Amino acid sequence: MFSWLGTDDRRRKDPEVFQTVSEGLKKLYKTKLLPLEEHYKFHEFHSPALEDADFDNKPMVLLVGQYSTGKTTFIRYLLEQDFPGMRIGPEPTTDSFIAVMQGDVEGIVPGNALVVDPKKPFRKLNAFGNAFLNRFVCAQLPNPVLESISVIDTPGILSGEKQRISRGYDFAAVLEWFAERVDRIILLFDAHKLDISDEFSEVIKALKNHEDKMRVVLNKADQIETQQLMRVYGALMWSLGKIVNTPEVIRVYIGSFWSHQLLIPDNRKLFEAEEQDLFRDIQSLPRNAALRKLNDLIKRARLAKVHAYIISSLKKEMPSMFGKDNKKKELVNNLGEIYARIEREHQISPGDFPNLRKMQDQLQSQDFSKFQPLKSKLLETVEDMLANDIAQLMVLVRQEESQRPTQMVKGGAFEGTLHGPFGHGYGEGAGEGIDDAEWVVARDKPMYDEIFYTLSPVDGKITGANAKKEMVRSKLPNTVLGKIWKLADIDKDGMLDDEEFALANHLIKVKLEGHELPNELPSHLLPPSKRKITE
Q: CA 440, CA 506: separation in Å to the nearest integer?
């Protein structure tokens, strides 16, 4: 009797079974989250409904910055070729949003045609109207970099009198729309003009809740001396600290991202190291794309839940007949108290609530009588999705990552330093002497031999204990010295001969000079007498 109750309960608790992460995200959104969003008018307040293209598209990188900070040049540098519609100059040249994407032939797709293409993730941009769509294009071209990622170039953010002229569309709202859907947001600053205009400040605030995607590039850093660069970097961090309200420091990459000679080459090594770090970050995007989409869906589901509680609470407080207008004004003014009550009753984190002032402004134009009361079944479905289905998708994400070969962005500037003598760190640290005919350690071996013969060698070898006495003088931690020992003890007999001892000292010198140790000994560091052992 009542066995159907237990069956229904089990059906609700058993997570869905999916073949791929993309398919799972689409199905969960359409069947479990979208009904809640539609019931409580989520799309009118926060973000348009997601479509299949939002789940299937390649990772996207959004470039944001004031005019003449090098956004378009940065894309040109990555692709190592011009793209359709590209304009570069010291004045505000890029007056459009340009989605740079992979295509079989070069060409430009205008905005009005772009937002009706179901294969592109831009259909919902239709809501921003013709004033925006006339300033939105897609530049398509065949390029190996674009096989893995797409890049969004944006109009330069204005300063001074220019920012008083209206663009004809809500610039900050468009950027916020893109921020929700891209995988990385790169804010570019010019080392010569760090002033953050009112429009730029408004834009950065609109990107709030997406700090995890944000990276900062201090561009054109080759145009100033080292001492000035230090001051500029400090000033930039101070300015960002006033606008980006997070206790963590945003990662700032310093460099000069164009293909011309460095004007002041003093900090060349720093720029190379920073460029490699940024490239590694961008190259990891395809590998982490599924996880990012999953994370964004969870964030959206949490916001949709809170939104449902807010709308249903407002509906509950409204009178059925008279005094609706006055009650609406009162509820909007006291929205902060409603937030606090919902937070207490449902144990919701304050960080999950939408911006109070923005929500109050949006509620002014809404008809509260059309709001829906609380529907527990819709909320329970989303709770079940977060508790069970998302956990299964997390497992599937890891499985897909392990089954696929390492996904990385290739081509363009990413290939330029991959091989050959211009690779980052080539010929430095453990790589020193890689092209030399002679063993690089031999240069300092006479000095190391003097120490070696003071350590009481027996049959041409010193014990581990005696080697340790000398090696700990470097003051390196035991974990590092242990790694050096493993690399230097080539024949694995627990002792070091004169060549192995010289090698150990060479590796200590490499580490003390600030370089990383290799995981395996490079062939050029093998002592000449040991090269046959390893073959």
A: 9
